[in-house]
Amino acid sequence: MVGLASMELLDKTHFEFFIPLKGDFQLENDATAVSAIDLLRNTEPKFSIITNDYIKDGITCAQWSGRLQWIDVSKILKSTKTTQLLVDGAHNLSAAKVLRNYVDKQLQLQNKEITKACNVCWIFAATREKDISKILELLIRNGDSLFAVNFTDVEGMPWVKCYDPQVILDCANINSKVVENLDEALRQAFANYDEQYRIIVLCGSLYLVSDLFRMLQ
Questions:
Q1: Are strands 14-19 and 69-72 parallel, antiparallel or unpaired?
Q2: In a 10 Å sphere around its CB, with 0-12 CB exposed, 13-18 middle and 19+ buried, how is residue 64 labelled?
Q3: Per its UniProt entry, which superkingdom is the organism in (predicted)?
Q4: How far is CA 132 from CA 75, 92, 148, 166, 181, in A?
Q5: Among 8, 141, 154, 174, which is 20 to 30 Å from 120 by CA?
Q6: Which of 10, 4, 5 is nearest to 37 (CA)?
Q7: What gap in Å lies between CA 10 and CA 26, rounded to an integer?
Q8: Tens of pLDDT, residues 34-46
Q9: pTM (two decimals)
Q10: Which of 124, 122, 96, 121 is nearest to 23 (CA)?
Q11: DSSP, residue by residue, 102-154
């Protein structure tokens, strides 16, 4: 959700604030944070210095990298035109629901039929302990495409393992392929952008998101 929101504080005053982060769940997140701060400053004198303006400034300045974030990957693709990739570290069921809901709303804003073939291309990786069958079931619609990739080994965390991309494909039951690496997945996906894909999404693992950020450095 990006826009104005409001709520009632403990003193019954009306508190209005701007939410800069995407996703309808941000309203609940920010309302919870504001309520907690409001309770603290009403029960602990040392927190009374936190004014409404401080709270508003904190919310307005909030950033959440890798969460419903649009990123220009033209540098990676060596393209002269802007190429927007939707990046989300969604790696559990609740996050997958939020991501799919956001994608559907973006498709509606584009005036595209959600049921049209290959609306969305998913670039996906996941750690082995995740229930990828249920996550993919929430994310993928008929006509979508999936590129299954590996993320790189996590330094200092040898116990973190990526699902074999073939296992991901076996769970997807849609038009999908194993791609050698993230760079190649991006190139193949954007080669068909606009003709087949309306939105290209990278998701499934924060480690995969980290790989992308390293490529952009």
A1: unpaired
A2: middle
A3: Eukaryota
A4: 30, 9, 12, 12, 19
A5: 154
A6: 10
A7: 21
A8: 899 999 999 998 9
A9: 0.81
A10: 96
A11: HHHHHHHHTT--TTSTT-EEEEE--BTTS-HHHHHHHH--TT-EEEE-PPPPP
**Which residues have C-beta within 8 Å of that of residue 177, sequence separation ≥ 6?**
146, 147, 148, 169
Cα(121)–Cα(194) distance, integer angstroms:
11
The answer to whether 27 touches 19, Cβ cutoff 8 Å, is: yes
Distance between CA atoms of residues 201 and 54, nearest Å: 35
Asked if 8 and 15 count as a contact pair (C-beta separation under 8 A), the reply is yes
Nearest Cα to Cα of residue 122 among 162, 69, 78, 177: 177
Residue where the block lists tokens 């004198």: 45
129-147 residue pLDDT tens: 899 999 999 999 888 889 9
Residue 113's pLDDT is what? 53
End-to-end CA distance of the chain: 28
Helices marked H in the chain = 25-43, 52-60, 74-77, 93-109, 132-139, 165-172, 182-191, 206-216
Residues forming a β-bridge with 38: none
d(CA 210, CA 119): 25
Q: What domains, with CATH codes, occur in the chain?
A: 3-60 (no CATH), 69-216 (3.90.190.20)
